[in-house]
Specification:
There is one protein chain. By secondary structure, the protein is of the alpha+beta class. It has one domain (about 5-90). It is built from two helices and four strands. It has helices spanning about 30, 40-45, and strands at about 5-10, 15-25, 55-65, 65-70. It has a four-stranded antiparallel β-sheet with strand order 1-2-3-4, with no helix packed on it. A hairpin with a 2-residue loop joins strand 1 and strand 2. It is elongated and about 50 Å long.
Length: about 90
Amino acid sequence: MEIVTKELTTNGKPIKVHGISTGNVSVKSKFRETNKKGILALLSFLLDREFTEWMPIWTWVIEHPEGIFVIDTGENSKVSERNYFKSSGA
């Protein structure tokens, strides 16, 4: 697990932002980048068989003068279900 921390100030008060890598994900290349639009973008994504490198999934914890905030940018819980990725060709 990777953790990165940045210390900042706002109105003279300290704030800490912690980035916590909670896992990794690889997605279809066309999901991350495409130069097509509309139906062509969808077809390009559906037919794509190339996947990206593994990328971290981040959760953010912000220590703020008004309290602690947790921002979960992670994957949805259905990825643990059998055959979730079957339609992607994986």
